[in-house]
Design goal:
The chain is mostly helical and 256 residues long. The protein is built from nine helices and no strands. Helix 4 runs antiparallel to helix 7. The protein starts with a helix and ends with a helix. The mean pLDDT is 85.
Length: 256
């Protein structure tokens, strides 16, 4: 959850820099200062924690472990689902600024909307670790899948037929989407890695690779879809929701 401090604070700080300096080059000066400060903090307060193992695996043995993980159909289904859920967030962060600019949002207002997204991701993850932890994982994830689809359909109808630029509705849409991602993302990660007693590190590495690779593929495909308004973004969310449900159903059959 602490990782969401960055997307929560960064857009607001960047919005102030952009709005009140009037020079886009200052963004790179600010980035250089932040990077240097982060380097000093890591250098002074974060010593190396990785211990060199006494017995290393040879390259071919490790490759065979990775290949065996890619053959696990259930594991790969949840990996693919994890990537699709991640696309919700990366797609939102990637495309929403352009949509909000067309709605005449200032850079600071744009950053505030981003912060709401980050806040509700944290609230979703916090809810999963407290109030929702007693709910069966697959039942809870099924609820998230249905909620993704139904909420996207409702907002598509609203933005298409009532108001495509209502700030309050955009904030509500942001809150619901990010809360669901906050619940579903760590939930599907635990479902993905459940049952591993050996090679947990390799499984986690494969999960991360598949997640980021298919996120990139999905965003590459969406790059050819003209996102001129929030309606187009919600349409992409419906496509993602349907694909998540299909893969989850396939995984359920594999588990039988």
């Amino acid at each position: 959850m602490s990782s969401q401090l960055s997307p929560a604070l960064a857009p607001i700080i960047g919005g102030f820099v952009q709005q009140y300096t009037g020079c886009w080059r200052i963004c790179f000066v600010a980035l250089a200062i932040i990077t240097f400060m982060a380097f000093l903090i890591i250098l002074l307060f974060m010593p190396e924690t990785c211990n060199i193992p006494y017995k290393k695996k040879d390259m071919m043995t490790q490759i065979k472990v990775y290949i065996s993980l890619f053959k696990l159909r259930k594991f790969m289904c949840f990996n693919f689902i994890s990537a699709l859920i991640f696309v919700f967030t990366i797609g939102y962060y990637g495309y929403m600024p352009f949509i909000l600019v067309k709605m005449n949002f200032t850079p600071v207002e744009n950053g505030v909307v981003y912060s709401i997204y980050a806040l509700f991701i944290v609230l979703g993850s916090l809810s999963l670790g407290t109030y929702l932890k007693k709910v069966n994982s697959k039942t809870l994830f099924s609820f998230c899948c249905i909620s993704y689809l139904l909420s996207s359909i409702v907002f598509l109808f609203y933005f298409n037929n009532i108001s495509p630029s209502s700030p309050i509705t955009i904030i509500i849409f942001t809150a619901i989407l990010s809360f669901l991602c906050g619940v579903a993302s760590p939930l599907v990660l635990s479902l993905c890695l459940t049952g591993f007693t050996y090679d947990k590190g390799a499984a986690s590495a494969v999960q991360g690779f598949v997640k980021m690779f298919f996120t990139g593929v999905a965003l590459f495909i969406f790059n050819f879809i003209p996102l001129k308004s929030i309606v187009n973004l919600v349409e992409c969310n419906i496509i993602l929701s349907v694909n998540i449900i299909i893969v989850f159903i396939v995984e359920s059959f594999l588990s039988v």
